Every structure is written in structure tokens, then in C-alpha cells.
Amino acid sequence: MSPLPRESWKALQRKHQNIVEPWISPRLERRSHHLKHPVDDFLFEYYPISPARIRAWHPGSGVSLVADEDDVADFPQASYTYDGSTISLNHTWVTDQSARFRSILELLKSTHERPAKNGCFGLHEWAMVVGDDAVRHTDWQLRLTDQEIRATINEVGLRCTHFDAFRFFTDEARPKNPLQLVRADQVSMEQPGCLHANMDLHKYASAMAPLIGSEIARACFALARDIRTVDMQVAPYELSGLGITPIRVETTEGRIEFATRQQEFTQRANDLRLSLITLLEPILEGQSQLTQ
């Protein structure tokens, strides 16, 4: 494939940056004023992936760019090379990261092949506060009493399959989950109905952005933003001051609403997961052949 002309890839870079700018500028503005946002900040702090990494544009594997020396600063030196006229993916970086990428691919494939479970009703955030005075988001009050939180958990039950949520459960909540998860369970337990497993696509896509390109990485971030909003709409926090209307999963109507949104996210995530698998498999297979 011929290198992409400079004016062509510059246009793609500008398009990407124009799309993500409204997603990252509120974070930068808040940070300059030492303000917090319990919904949006999660996507930058929990993973953590900086606004600069989201703003960076990547063409993807197999695409080289006609470039000037001034363009080099736009691309991470570890994952790209510049030969004096073109910028292209650094295959040494791919080789160095191949073990990590293979583990991501294994997790993506095992998750994609598993049927979705949609009966958790987003109660993981409830399980992180029940019976515990140390509320995680201390700047925001709970909209329900501890007794109401406990009653809903007892009525509906906990069905968490995601270790990175389960590990934050309170001592009271942890025994109520049928699966007593450990890190080693992730590949065998992760399933495509889980909100957090689907948000994690952003983490994996960001790590592999030079390989997979910004279009799919951007789609994974957009999905994570949408899921995080619903994640906190379901949570037992009072967030109306942020314009977040609760989905009251303590009611039958709220659980129906959540299940509908969860199914929508499952489909979006499955499409993205399959795209990542389709991109990664031939690249990593080719990498294996080169090292044999």
C-alpha cells in the first residue's frame, strides 16, 4: 500500500480530534479548577487513560504516512518510526507487546463466545456501599438508606461476573455473590452482558491504538462513555445535581429499563469485540510466523 499523502492523513487527524474534543475538554477544564465529576472522571482515572492519549490519532497497522520531521511529535516514538519521509508502525514495538496483545485477544475471544447474562441489574455499585460507612464517592450522598440498599440486594440478588467490580464489594456483600471471583477467573467468567467488561474495551483499544487505528478505539471510548452514564444512573447515589436521572432498579419498572439498555450495550460491545478480534488475529498470526 502506498503511503497516505500528508494532506489526506492530516484531514483524518483533524476529524478525529474534532470528534473527541467535546469528550475530553470538560475533563481538562475541571482539572484546571480542581473539580471532580464521579461519572466522567472514571474514564480517565480508573483505567487510567489521559485526554492526550485519546486525542492522539492513529492510522492503524499497514498504513504509512508521508510526513515531515515536524509531524513526528504527533506519534509516540515507541510505537512509530520515521525514515526521513514517512511515518509507519514500529514492528519492534508490536513484537515487544505481542504477549500482552495475545492475552487481550484470548480474553476478547472467550468473552465473545460466551452467552450474555443480563440479570445483574447493575447492583455492583450497591454492593460496594452496603453495610459500609466508607462511601466511595464521598462528595455525593446516597439517594437511599442502607436499609433500602440492603433490602433491594436481598430481593433481587447479586450476580456479578466481573472481578474488577467484585473486588470492591463490602464484606457484607461479598458472600451474597454466587461467584467468589479471583483474578484468575477473568478469562473463564467474563461475559458480554457485563457493563464493566464492555467498558473495558476502551482500555484494550487504547493500549492497541497504534495497531488497530483510532476509528475503532474512538468507538470503544464512545461506548464506555454511554455505559458509564447508565452505570451511575443505576447506582444508589444522588446525582441529580449533575443532571443524571436515576434508573430506579429498586423497582420493577427500573429493572426493565436497565435490562433494555444493557441489551443495547451488549450488541454494540459484541460488534466492537468482533472487530477487534478480526483485526488482531491476522496481525498476531503474522507476528508468530516472523519469530519462528
How would you characterize the overall build of this protein?
With about 290 residues, the protein is mainly alpha-helical. It has one domain (about 35-60, about 100-290). The protein is about 55% helix and about 5% strand. The chain is built from twelve helices and three strands, in the order αααβββααααααααα. It has helices spanning about 5-30, 40-45, 50-55, 90-115, 125, 145-155, 165, 185-190, 195-205, 210, 215-235, 250-290, and strands spanning about 65, 80, 85-90. The chain has a three-stranded antiparallel beta sheet. Helix 4 crosses helix 12 and helix 9 (about 195-205) packs parallel to helix 12. The mean pLDDT is about 95.
What structural class results from the helix and strand content? mainly alpha
Q: H/E element string?
A: HHHEEEHHHHHHHHH
Helix content: 40-55%
Could you report the average pLDDT, rounded to the nearest whole number?
Answer: 93
Please give the order of strands in the largest beta sheet. Answer: 1-3-2
Distance between the termini: 25 Å
Oligomer: single chain
Strand proportion = under 5%
Radius of gyration: 21 Å
- The number of helical segments is 12
- Largest sheet, described in full? 3 strands, antiparallel
Poorly predicted regions: none
Question: Number of DSSP strands?
Answer: 3
The structural domain count equals: 1
Shape estimate: globular
